[in-house]
Amino acid sequence: MTKQAKKNKAIELMKTLDIYEPYIQGFEQSDKVCFYEMFGGYWVEQEKEIYDKMKQLENKYKCVVYAITHEFTDFGDLYDFLIVPDYKSDWKGLLYKQSNNEFIAYAYVWNKTDDLCSEFGSIVVQSFGGGIRRVA
C-alpha cells in the first residue's frame, strides 16, 4: 500500500475523531503528527524521544502514525500511537464509534517503563474540543 493511501485513510480517521482542523492540515500538508495529553495537543517533533519512536514504528511496520496520546498508569508510562497499517485488509477495524465522543481505535501502545509490555491492540479514546485522550 502506498504511503499516500495510508495518509488519506489517516485523514479520514482524524476527521471522524473530530480532530482540530489545523492539526489535520498540518498532517495533510507537512506530515506533522499531533501528540495529545489530556485533550491538549502539540507537534510530536517537539519531543525528540517520542518522535524517534514514531519514526522507528513507521519504518519497521510500514505504517503511518496519525496521532499519539500519553498517559501515566500504575503499570507504566504509556504512549499510544494511532496507526494505519500497511495492509488495506486491516483498515476496516481501525476505528469504531462507541458513543458521541468515544471510539475504539487501533494503536501500538508503547510502555516506556516496561518495553516488554508494549503491544498492538485496541484502546478507547475520547474526543473533545478538537483533541483526544485515552480512557481505557
How large, in whole angstroms, is the Cα Rg? 14 Å
Overall mean confidence score, pLDDT: 95
Instruction: State which percent range the strand residues make up.
Output: 35-45%
| Discrete helix count | 3
Q: In terms of per-residue confidence, which ranges show pLDDT below 50 for 5 or more consecutive residues?
A: none
Give helix and strand order, one letter per element, not per position: HHEEHEEEEEE
**What is the rounded distance between the termini?**
30 Å
Could you characterize the architecture of this molecule?
- The chain is an alpha+beta fold and 136 residues long.
- Helices cover 28% and strands 40% of the residues.
- It has helices at 3-16, 21-30, 48-61; strands at 34-37, 40-43, 64-73, 76-84, 95-97, 102-111, 119-128, 131-134.
- Strands 1, 2, 3, 4, 5, 6, 7 and 8 form an eight-stranded mixed beta sheet that branches.
- The longest helix is centred in the first third of the chain and has 14 residues, at 3-16.
- The radius of gyration is 14 Å and the shape is globular.
- The model has no long low-confidence stretch (mean pLDDT 95).
Give a quick summary of the entry.
This protein has 136 residues and is an alpha+beta fold. It is built from three helices and eight strands, in the order H-H-E-E-H-E-E-E-E-E-E.
